[in-house]
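To whoever picks this up:

The nightly regression suite flagged DNA-binding response regulator as changed. Nothing in the input moved, so I suspect the structure step. Input below, exactly as stored in the fixture:
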Amino acid sequence: MKILVIEDEEALRESIFSYLTGEGNLCEVAMDYWSGIEKINLYSYDCILLDLTLPGGDGLKILAEIKKMNKQEGVLIISARHSLDDKLSGLEMGADDYLVKPFHLSELKARIMAIVRRKNFSGSNLLSFNEINIDMLAMEVRIGDKLINFTKKEYDLLIYFISNQGKVISKNAIAEHLWGDEIDMSDDFDFIYTHIKNLRKKLVEAGAKDYIRSMYGVGYKLENI
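Regenerated output under the current build:
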């Protein structure tokens, strides 16, 4: 998953970043209102962790901007504000969940997973696309009873394709989703072709059909054939 943490408290921000990154997620951070606004305008995420009390502005204004832009990211508010009014305000404005500080990082992860499942996979930990079966908790992909050994990037790429099945995805969107804003430093996306080639090869060799189509000059699309 690709997650943005908008949090000004350095120790908590670094703790969340280290934990989520250690769990295999791509994690980016913003430490104030304006850097948070810049991130959501430039990039897309699976989930945004949003503090409300930020230098430079209120986190609820960032939430309003996300909704105004009609972005589809899940939003989990993480805040020391614990009154019912604060919780209701955040949820009524469109946040998917509200977690009061302090919290356990394991609970934070569970809440993020629940949001992403509801947004993309109808709330289930098990994802299926024809003969391809994925256990998202175990991060295992099977064709029938055969377990496929994917790298982390190949696994993330497969999830991304299935989440956007039927849509044409540009090379730039794939690169930004899998590598984050660091990809801005690259002007060569040939490595994406290598990852997609390996993903397709492993799926076909395990008995799946080749669902990934190259759209010349545009990008790639996963389609049901």
